[in-house]
Amino acid sequence: MAAASDRRAAWGRWRLGLALAAACGAASAAEAPKAPPKAVQCAACHGPNGIGTGPAFPNLAGQKADYLVKALRDFRSGKRQDEVMSVMAKGLTSEEIDELAQYYEALGQQPK
Predict the structure, then answer these.
(1) Each residue of 21-67: pLDDT tens digit?
(2) Helix (H) or strand (E) holding 16
(3) For the chain, which residues make up each domain, given as ranges?
(4) Are 22 and 64 in contact, with CB atoms under 8 Å apart?
(5) Which of 9, 11, 45, 79 has most Cβ atoms within 10 angstroms of its Cβ?
(6) CB 19 within 8 A of CB 41
(7) Please, are residues 6 and 85 in contact by the beta-carbon 8 Å criterion?
(8) Are 101 and 72 in contact (CB under 8 A)?
(9) Nearest CA to 100 among 68, 76, 73, 77?
């Protein structure tokens, strides 16, 4: 489990994630699926291509959509607890969770 300081540092990287996501948005649609708008928030910790930015942050690219949907809904409901993810998931609608899960599954497994 990641240290609380790693999680707090993630908030500081949120702005960097926005810039990275915008820069990576220049790739053509044929190269990767189009990211849903809420993926910008995920990019701060999980990288613009779904590859975690450090050891405390798991890769999302290639994860099964069903797993990601369950994890995000559990964070949102409080069934699963994490200082950062619980807050992030509370702001997501069920539709946004489904979009994010489909997107990260569509990215497939990517090298680090």
Answers:
(1) 555 554 444 567 899 999 999 999 999 999 999 999 999 999 999 99
(2) helix 14-24
(3) 4-25+37-107
(4) no
(5) 45
(6) no
(7) no
(8) yes
(9) 68
The encoded tokens of residue 50 equal: 């779904």
Two tokens at 44? 């701060």
Helix, strand and coil percent figures for the chain, each rounded to 5: 55, 0, 45
What is d(CA 96, CA 23) in angstroms, rounded to the nearest whole number? 22
> Helix or strand or coil: residue 66?
helix
Residues 6+ apart with CB under 8 A from 109: 61, 62
Encoded tokens for 62 = 């290639």
Higher-pLDDT residue of 1 and 65 is 65
Residue 91: count of CB within 10 angstroms of its CB: 10
Residue type for position 17: G
Percent of the chain predicted with pLDDT > 90: 67
